[in-house]
Amino acid sequence: MICGGVIPQQDYEFLKKAGVKAIFGPGTNIPAAAREILDIIRTTRS
User: Fold this and answer.
1) Is the keyword Amino-acid biosynthesis in the record (predicted)?
2) What are the beta bridge partners of residue 23?
3) How far is CA 32 from each of CA 11, 14, 17, 39, rounded to the nearest angstrom?
């Protein structure tokens, strides 16, 4: 699972423990996020 949006920093640890692989907040660099998501997909499929 990948999350994005206005998520309070104090919730990040809970989300990661719940299985979230990446969290993208406001101002995220879209090309960098896309590369990270593709890396997550590749790693998960392997």
Assistant:
1) no
2) 3
3) 22, 24, 23, 11
Predicted pLDDT at 31:
98
10's tokens: 């104090």
Beta partners for residue 2, in sequence order: 22
Write out the E strands in the chain.
2-4, 22-24
Angle at CA of residue 31, ends 3 and 26, nearest 5°: 45
Going by the DSSP 8-state scheme, the letter that residue 18 receives in this structure is: T
Distance (Å, whole) CA 41 – CA 46: 9
Query: Using one digit for the tens of pLDDT, what is the confidence trace for 18-41?
Result: 999 999 999 999 999 999 999 999
